[in-house]
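Consider the tokenized backbone below.
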């Protein structure tokens, strides 16, 4: 009986590490499927140029971008500057926002929509102030 326990224990110890190992191919990338390190250029929006806060022609803002870079500089209607990053269809401005928490804007066509409901538009609204209804 002592011998069968020793043999069983030896077989268990020899088999255990083999079962716990991860197969070799999982450690290395497949050379036929290269990793994508940057988003395709066509998916990076070009925000460079003059913008208008809520379409107001007197409230010019600006975005400086060397397209296709995702690193941009935002300049608001008061001339305050802040570096930002484009992430998909959003812009992240870490130094703006309430309480220094940063500001995330959503890019929708020719507008950047801010969390408070304001927006920047590429074209001014010619009838300013816009008609808000009764």
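A designed sequence for it:
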């Amino acid at each position: 009986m002592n011998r069968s326990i020793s043999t069983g224990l030896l077989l268990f110890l020899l088999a255990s590490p083999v079962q716990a190992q991860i197969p070799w191919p999982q450690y290395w990338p497949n050379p036929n499927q290269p990793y994508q390190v940057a988003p395709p250029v066509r998916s990076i929006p070009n925000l460079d140029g003059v913008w208008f806060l809520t379409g107001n022609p007197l409230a010019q803002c600006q975005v400086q971008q060397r397209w296709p870079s995702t690193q941009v500089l935002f300049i608001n209607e008061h001339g305050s500057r802040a570096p930002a990053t484009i992430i998909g269809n959003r812009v992240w401005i870490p130094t703006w926002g309430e309480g220094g928490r940063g500001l995330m804007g959503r890019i929708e066509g020719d507008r950047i929509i801010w969390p408070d409901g304001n927006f920047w538009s590429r074209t001014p609204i010619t009838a300013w102030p816009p008609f808000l209804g009764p």
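The two ends are 96 Å apart (CA to CA).
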